[in-house]
Amino acid sequence: MTQNLDNILSHKTHHLVWQTLFTALSYLPWAWLLLMGCFTLSVTIATGHFPTYGQPDPKDTGILTLLYLPLIFFLPITLFSWVFWIAFGLSKYFLHLPIKIRRQEVIPFVSGYIVFIWFAVSDFVGLMNWLAD
Hints:
Elements: H1 2-47, H2 65-79, H3 81-94, H4 103-122, H5 127-131
Helix pairs in contact: 1-2, 1-3, 1-4
């Protein structure tokens, strides 16, 4: 009896971990964009002007560097998140991982990734150039 209960709980925990990772990956582009907005707004408030290339250097923003470091770390992960997202989806079928691909993950990922790519490629206000400074 206890053995069966342990198996059930273990399976539920296994499912919850994989589903949580898949859901987190689905919201990653939006999280990166939100963090970028917070960082830009914080630097604008701290300096009194909208950041431009080298003014101020993002690495030299004092305590705001705590927002800069995750931006730089998650930039390539977000850029290639579509590879991980598709791999997770395919692993459901090939590795039989307990993942449910729901509309709650598909719509945020696709829309967020499109906005992220548009933001990164267009760089209409020079923020990506400033960030890469």
